[in-house]
Amino acid sequence: MFNIQKRPSWYIPERSITPEAVVANRRYFLKKLGFAGAGLLTAVAAGCSKQQSATASPELNTGAGAAPAETNKIAASSARAAYPAPRNPDFNPAWPLTDEETAANYNNFYEFTTSKTGVRRLTDRFVIAPWPLEITGLVENPMSLDAQELIDQMTLEERIYRFRCVEAWAMVVPWTGFQLSKLLDKVKPKPEARFVRFVTFNRPDQAPGLRDSSYPWPYTEGLRLDEAMHPLTLVATGIYGKPLPKQHGAPIRLVVPWKYGYKSIKSIVKIELVAQQPKTLWETMAPHEYPFESNVDPAVPHPRWSQATERMIDTGVRVRTLKHNGYADLVAKLY
Ligand SMILES: Nc1nc2c(c(=O)[nH]1)N[C@H]1C(S)=C(S)[C@@H](COP(=O)(O)O)O[C@H]1N2
Ligand SMILES: [Mo]
């Protein structure tokens, strides 16, 4: 992977098309240019006594904090028992998979950093167990439980899905998880519920990107209820036959394979059934670039780049983008 820190955001095509390119404030550009001190200056100016760099802080990489590491280990060993889950043969078992290590080191997870190749090494302090989770709002049976308790209640399966980021990179990965519909059936949406809203954790002490106040944290996403109930819509708990590594959105995330990747929200703490279409983080930042629906469509360019082709992240091969990311037949009745 090229070193994106050394180039301005408009220099490389793939760089120029990152969602964060919409955030054009001074602090942002200073950080991109490698001025770790930019965040420090901001913090001091704001009268903040805790002088933390807004970019990668070396102390975050040392695994400091034995307690979280221990907790994570215990949870991981109990979670691993269910893996690998049986592969569902209805979902493209013959597709060649993207290289696992490439996928694990090329992530979008802005709670940590906007650098795709930097997410993984910033996740040491991220505590994924215990993980309180709420399924709430316009439902008959709201649930409030630990993510692992929920996972233990569900039957896990593996599905091979194509995954397409709005930035025009793509991969094919085996997710482990369960249909969101199975969870929604348990909580029983009320008749007034029309949309589902998803919320990610917001703990700046565990994820340094959350200290960047130019984003409207926490990360939120949403689906129409019929999209959420669609059998393709997955709650993923694992990838490549193992529990999700932190950088992929542990302990649970959404996967909506016919929509651009940012709809597949990571590390969910709350699922809320609501009556009105919820605002999402990306829609709030740039409504014309990242609208609520965001179905993959090669014929509809992003305002700043074409969506006609996509680059496979491991081989670098460029292929034609497919309508609804190849799932057009399956989702046709929704649109
Ligand atoms: N909470 C949260 N979820 C997120 C993101 C994020 O920054 N924060 N990035 C999204 C984007 S743009 C993409 S392409 C995918 C990337 O998933 P991966 O890193 O597991 O491949 O996660 C999506 N979910
Ligand atoms: Mo993305």
Can you characterise this structure?
The structure is a single chain. The chain is 20% helix and 19% strand. β7 and β8 form a beta hairpin. It has 10 helices and 12 strands. By secondary structure, it is α+β, with helices and mostly antiparallel strands. Strands 3, 4, 7, 8, 9, 11 and 12 form a 7-stranded mixed β-sheet that branches. It has a 5-stranded mixed β-sheet with strand order 2-1-10-5-6. The longest helix has 15 residues. It is globular, with a radius of gyration of 19 Å. The site of ligand MTE has 16 residues, from loops. The site of molybdenum atom has 6 residues, from loops.
Report the β-strand fraction as a percent range.
Answer: 15-25%
Find the count of extended strands (DSSP E, 2+ residues).
12
Number of H- or I-type helical stretches:
10
Taken from the alpha-carbon principal axes, the silhouette is globular
> What's the story with the biggest beta sheet?
7 strands, mixed
Task: Specify the structural class.
Answer: alpha+beta
Instruction: Tell me which ligands are bound.
Output: the ligand Nc1nc2c(c(=O)[nH]1)N[C@H]1C(S)=C(S)[C@@H](COP(=O)(O)O)O[C@H]1N2, molybdenum atom
| DSSP helix fraction | 10-25%
Mean pLDDT: 83
Elements, N to C (H/E): HHHHHEEHEEHEEHEEEEHEEH
The CA-CA distance between the termini, in Å, is: 37 Å
Give the radius of gyration.
19 Å
Q: Which spans of ≥5 residues are poorly predicted at pLDDT below 50?
A: 1-67
